[in-house]
Structures are given as C-alpha cells and as structure tokens.
# Entry
Amino acid sequence: MKHTKVKDLLNSTNTIDEVSVKGWVRTFRNNQFIALNDGSVIHNIQCVVDFENTPEETLKRITTGAAVALKGSLVESQGKGQTYEIKVSHIEILGDSDPEKFPMQPKKHSLEFLRENAHLRTRTNLFGAIMRVRSVLSFAIHQYFQEKGFVYVNTPIITGSDAEGAGEMFKVTALPFDNTPRTEEGKVDYKEDFFGKETNLTVSGQLEAETYAMSLGQVYTFGPTFRAENSNTSRHLAEFWMVEPEVAFNDLDANMDLAEDFIQYVIKYAMERCEDDLKFLDERLAAEEKQKPQNERSEMGLLEKLQFVLENNFKRVSYTEAIDILKNSKPNKNKKFNYIIEEWGADLQSEHERYLVEKHFKSPVILFDYPAKIKAFYMRLNDDNKTVRAMDILFPGIGEIVGGSQREERLDVLQQKIADLGIDEEELWWYMDTRRFGTAVHSGFGLGFERLVLFVTGMSNIRDVIPFPRTPQNAEF
Ligand code: 4AD
Ligand code: MG
# Structure
C-alpha cells in the first residue's frame, strides 16, 4: 500500500479504513500518542498506538527523531486539537534515533544551535515552515516572469568579468599553490591556468543577461551569486541567490514599475499558498517581539506587514531628497548615526536606509538617481553629469532588497566611464558590442532572494533562510 502524505490526511473530509503513513516522530507521549511529521505540512498527525498490544521492544524504539511507517485507520479524533487521527494497527521502525544523542529535542533551541545543526534543523516546525515558504517563493518568481513572456537565461557561474566592479570575487583556478607558474615579471601566469585567463565566481549575471535582453527582449536570470566581501552581518552571505530581470526598451520608471509589481506578485503568491506556515511564522514573530522593550517592538505583525506591501505603492524618492531628509533627521543632528550625513554624495549605510523606511516613510521606498561616483560603471548618466539612473528598493527590517538601473546605452559615454574607472575595455569587448550593434534603452535589477525570504518569513538573520549558509569562516556542510 502506498503511503499518504500527512498534509492530505489532515485535509481529508472523511474517515478512511486503511491508511499508511511514513515520517519522523516529533514526540511520543504516554506510550500512546505519536506526533508524526513528514515535512509536507507544518502540522503533525496524531497517531494513537494500542500500547497494550504492542511489544515493549517496539514501544521503546518510538523516540523523537525516529523514522517510522505506520498503518491503521483514519478516524475522528476523540481528543482536542485535531479533527482526524490515525488509529495505529501496525508499526514498523524504519530508522532508530537515539534519544540521548539526537540533537533536535522537543524543546526550544536557540537559532545559533540550529545553525550549527543545519543538517537537522528542518526537523523543526520553524525551519520546515521557512524552507517551504522559500520553495514557494522561488516557484512564484518563475511563474511571474514566465506568465509575462520573459525568457529564463542561465548565465555562467564561472566568468572572467567583474560585473559590479567591486572586486569582491572568489578566484577560480586549477593552478597549484606550490610551484605556481609565473611570468617573467613574477606574476601568476594565468595563461597556464585551466581557462587560460583569470576567472572568478560570478557576482552577478547582469552583463551576460543584458546581451540576451538585446535580442530576446525580456529575460531573467535566477541563480547563485558569490561575493567575497568580509561582511559578517545578518544581511550578507558569501553565496546567495539573485533574481535579475533585464528588459529592452524599459526606462527607469518602467523598471521601477516592474520591480514593484513583481515583488507584490510573489508575496501575494506565497500568502495564498503558505497560509499555515505564515500563520506559524506570524505567531513566532509576535512572541519574539513581546520579549523586546515596548519602544523597540515593530508596529505591525508579519501578516500585516505583508498585506501592507501588497496594498501600498512604494514611495519613490530621489537620492537628493533622501539626503535632505537624512541631514535634517534627529539621529543625524544628535550624532546617533555611526556615519553622519554631511553632504550630498555620501554613500548611504544601512542605518540611513532603515531610518528612511522604518521611521520616516514607514513604507517600502525606491531611491533613485544616485551620485555616479558611488554606483557601478554600467548605469546611465543623467544630463546633470553627476547622477545616474540607479534605483535601490529599501524594505522595512531588511534595508536594500533590490539594486538596479537603466543601463548606459551610449557607446561613447560608456567608453568614457570605463576609461575613467581604469577598467580594460578589451575585457568587456563583448559587452561593448551590444552598444555597437543595435543599442537601445534598457533596464534591469537584481533582487537578493534571501532578503526577500527574510522579509516574507519575518526572520532576522539571513543565515536562517538559506539551507546551508556560507559566510566568512563558515562553509560547514
Ligand atoms: O545591488 P547589487 O550588488 O546589484 C547587482 O548585482 C546588479 N548587477 C543587479 C542588476 O542590476 N541586475 O545586488 C543586488 C541585490 C541587493 O539589492 C541585495 O538584495 C542582494 O542582491 N545582495 C546580497 N544578498 C545577500 N548577501 C550579499 N552579500 C548580497 N549582496 C547583494
Ligand atoms: Mg546594491
């Protein structure tokens, strides 16, 4: 007999004479009640064991963490808390779990402890919920772009280009560390390396995606990206997933419209399909907020916050306006910011972004038209010659969730910018070709997938929304 998922059993509208179920024991109470979970849904199914007619040997092996296969009937529950339960007639222990050693005890563990046990943490309600929401969000992303006729492009993971020009790249090499081949000047001779040139793990698929947008019109990438930035924060990973749409003939306004519509769509999608998980996460966050002093508590619950994003337009504010707001803000005047905003041109730190979103506008914000100096080379220069058509989307509790821009489509302007930055044009010959042959206005953005998952799940550390986080000094599993 094929086993049925716990989710389907709990959704049943009638009793069933014969069912089979497989899963992991969460708890075993009074030698009688197994709370069984199989990952299909946050809820456990209660399985009632006829302990008087079950060998002592078997009962002893029903421990937290053990894998079991149960047969019996789905009956209306006598007890509180569930409509249906399984009256067990046959028990098979598939895999024992030593209760003395199994780390996921039925009690509250710290998130740090769970990170150290990332291979087992999805045995908890919390991580089951987070990872199901992550999965649904990831599908929603494809659904959104596919419905709109975008082409999904798999951009390379190993590349020779530094898309962001920030130099935070992991090198890819097959050269030996000892006896490294050297040029006459004593530099590493990459001609001898696997690819015959210097290569790295991609920091963004944008440049390659641009070439596809300039032929297929609307494209998106969704894949892993890598940054060797030594930022040990709750918002940064060394390996994270990024969604990058790129659209020919879109200007910055159309780019903002797309980003806003896209984010609202995927959040709505998850809200409709992850009701139980989000309800659980909403309650978890509420309980956590209660521990905080009153003035630090967030004004909205998780579900309220998600609903708010669906119902309200993102505020669109120029960098220049934002600087004025920040300069005149209380924390700036009282020197409460770590970085005091003194003049136009300053790069915004996450404390400033969060002030704008959480204190000033109390809404998601799209900042645009940043100083050219603090943004990447490919962004389109405005007529003022000092700002570029950049946009960052800032979210409450998250800070920057999206970075994007209208791209510089004019060959001569792009060449000048590249030269000014000391980038070798030869390295980007293929990128420059899109401006040589049939160039046109185009725009795109990158959304950090884990930051989206953070927002939707209400978690506060990015290490808790990706299965096996990679961060400085940590690549376990
Ligand atoms: O702002 P970024 O660096 O933009 C780009 O890479 C562009 N090429 C995107 C584009 O226009 N196609 O990164 C985009 C987003 C950020 O807004 C942030 O959400 C996320 O990627 N991000 C990170 N997420 C986790 N860990 C990190 N270290 C991240 N760095 C950026
Ligand atoms: Mg950015």
Observations:
- The first strand starts at residue 16 and ends at 29.
- The radius of gyration is 27 Å.
